[in-house]
Amino acid sequence: MPSPIADRQSPIETVGIVAKARLGEAAGVVAELAGWLDAREIRAVFDKETAALVGLPPGRPIGTRDELPQMCDLLVVLGGDGTLIGMAGRVAHAGVDIPIVGVNFGGLGFLTEITLPELYSSLESVLDGSAEIEPRLLVRSRTYRNGALYTDRFALNDVVITRGAISRIIDLVVTIGDQRAMRVRADGLIVGTPTGSTAYNLAAGGPIVHPSVDALLLTPIAPHTLTNRPIVVPGDSEIRIEPAQGTASDELFVTFDGQSGHPFQEDDAIVVTRADRVVRLVRASTRTYFDVLRQKLKWLER
Predict the structure, then answer these.
(1) pLDDT of residue 140
(2) ∠ Cα 221 226 227 (to 5°)
(3) What is the model's pLDDT at position 296?
(4) Is the pTM of this model over 0.85?
(5) Tell me, what's the pLDDT at 258?
(6) Per-residue model confidence (pLDDT) at position 83
(7) Where exactly does CATH 2.60.200.30 map onto the chain?
(8) Distances (CA, A) of 200 to 2, 157, 258, 261, 301
(9) DSSP state, 287?
């Protein structure tokens, strides 16, 4: 359920600003936003790429995108869903609980649903405590190699296992808890969140799941058999994925939110669980989730 920002322990004193890389049309908005914050005695801090994009004068506080979540009380992301997802992952890894305002600059923008004309009214609602902050479920994906932890990642949308360079059907064994659940022979497998249900999952034929539902999704990509269908499981499930015995190590690759990844080897195992933290997104006050589906997907309009 959405939670009011008034529940926060302290007021908003520092706002981090991130613009999509090389998004030239955002430069004027960033400069204007910095002035708007200055007028309210709120400190603005910029990531290095955004500072370079705008040509900020010396003395403005800047940091890397990895450092920014630790430097601010609120994050404003100007760009598309990819930019927001990248920063959401950094917020999760930093272990901080700061809201994110996603402002759309073209493209589909399911997560960056706030439009440019709504930017300042949305920020005003955050500052006065009336904004709705929607918690979004994250998954934690741990890869074990030879029994030892190899990678530990958070994902807002999905963890995806696909074929490598060689075009062959992949073969995976999936265990949920202590129960053997499915064997997937397909082009790949998506383990998605409700937020990610409108992303790759939807393109692969998976269901749309409302973001407030506590659930995880498993969606085969182009399955070899018609009976190998998507399934929705409880959010507290532990999902373990392993290559079937005899799977060649050069066939598989795993990605996290499409932002990073690594080869998935024959002796690896991936364990996906609900994370112990959430990402908090500032909701647009002018539309509901179903309005977004209709606007972005033309959902149920024909």
Answers:
(1) 97
(2) 100
(3) 79
(4) yes
(5) 93
(6) 92
(7) 138-276
(8) 25, 9, 10, 16, 22
(9) -
Q: For residue 240, what are the contacts with CB-CB under 8 A and spacing of at least 6?
A: 174, 175, 176, 269, 270, 271, 272
Which residue ranges does the chain devote to CATH 3.40.50.10330?
Answer: 3-131+283-297
Tokens encoding 17: 């600003």
The pLDDT of residue 96 is 94
Which amino acids are annotated catalytic? 81
| CATH of the structural domain 138-276, one choice from 1.20.120.1560, 2.30.30.240, 2.60.40.10, 2.60.200.30 | 2.60.200.30
Q: Among positive and negative, which fits the CA dihedral 80, 236, 146, 228?
A: negative
| Angstrom distance (rounded) from CA 67 to CA 295 | 35
Q: Taking the CB of residue 243, how many other CB atoms lie within 10 A of it?
A: 22
Instruction: Return the CATH fold of 3-131+283-297.
Output: Rossmann fold (3.40.50)
Mean pLDDT by 10 residues, the chain (302 residues): 44 93 82 93 93 81 93 94 94 95 81 90 93 95 96 97 80 95 94 96 96 97 90 98 77 92 93 97 87 82 66
Quote the longest CA-to-CA distance of the chain: 64
In one letter, which amino acid is 43? Answer: R
Which secondary structure element, helix H or strand E, spans residue 231, and what is its range?
Answer: strand 231-234
How far apart CA 43 and CA 60 sit, in angstroms, is 9
Residue 244 falls in which region: left (phi positive, over 0), alpha (psi -120 to 50) or beta = beta
pLDDT score of 6: 39
Phi, psi of 20 (to 5 degrees): -55, 140
Per-residue confidence (pLDDT) for residue 7, from 0 to 100: 44
